[in-house]
Write a structure and sequence with these properties.
Blueprint: E1 15-18, H1 22-32, E2 34-40, E3 47-52, E4 55-60, H2 66-79, E5 84-93, E6 103-110, H3 115-120, E7 126-128, H4 131-143, E8 149-155, H5 166-173, E9 177-179, H6 182-191, E10 195-205, H7 214-219, H8 222-232
Parallel strand pairs: 1-4, 1-5, 5-10, 6-8, 8-9
Antiparallel strand pairs: 2-3, 3-4, 5-9, 6-7, 6-10
């Protein structure tokens, strides 16, 4: 056990799906898993382990932002022997080519964050997800006839910005959208020799100003969730 996770060794599967919202973790566990066990409630950061199509999977919330997912993903990799983490979250589109509910596979994460620099002196501002996990997700999406975008996203420390430069980031780094966790997750996977990737559903658009409700974000990202689960059982 750790200060942030009361699960015992062996109660967390080798592959973990990580939504940000604890209630989304509960929704996924209640909807998709059988033989479910609630294995962590510390700080209400729920973790559930159960079976999906006879494969043991853990669903654990990460909370919001890089410091939060940084703690939980590091502990999962380091102390619970987790091998694979697939983040499943929401994001704001930086391009008119993405509509609400479109799904993006994050191949690279750009960030101006100091998370990696502070953690171990890493100076890169673009980190990549794991190609093996990505190939499995791409093939699963193709097999299940799920439209999937893939590319670079912006992983930001700040949600409310006084000077939003999304057009510049789209042009300079080809950032398709913005979220707040993937950069830290990819860094932890890199330093601990583990695997990580990220699937995001577009919940709002900085271009068109469209947005979903909090309830829709919690309960209506089923295609992304099913894609992640169907990919996870192949690991």
């Amino acid at each position: 056990m750790t200060p942030h996770n009361e699960a015992k060794k062996g109660e967390i599967a080798k592959t973990v799906l990580m939504p940000g919202d604890p209630l989304r973790a509960k929704f996924i566990a209640d909807t998709y898993l059988s033989d479910v066990r609630l294995v962590n409630t510390v700080r209400n950061m729920y973790a559930y382990t159960g079976k999906y199509k006879n494969k043991e999977i853990t669903i654990m919330a990460s909370g919001m932002g890089m410091p939060s997912i940084g703690i939980y993903s590091y502990e999962l990799y380091k102390f619970y022997d987790v091998e694979n983490i697939i983040r499943i979250g929401s994001a704001g589109a930086y391009t008119k080519d993405l509509n609400l509910y479109d799904i993006v596979l994050v191949t690279d994460s750009y960030s101006e964050s100091s998370y990696a620099l502070t953690q171990n002196g890493e100076t890169r501002h673009i980190l990549s997800s794991n190609p093996e996990l990505n190939n499995i997700i791409l093939e699963t999406a193709k097999k299940n006839n799920i439209k999937l975008f893939a590319g670079t996203i912006h992983s930001s420390d700040v949600f409310y910005k006084d000077n939003d430069n999304f057009k510049e980031l789209n042009e300079k780094y080809n950032c398709l959208a913005c979220e707040m966790e993937s950069f830290a997750l990819f860094h932890n996977a890199n330093i601990l020799n583990k695997k990580a990737t990220c699937l995001i559903t577009i919940s709002d658009s900085l271009v068109t100003k469209e947005q979903t409700t909090s309830e829709e974000r919690q309960n209506s990202f089923n295609k992304m969730i099913e894609l992640a689960l169907d990919s996870a059982i192949q690991l």
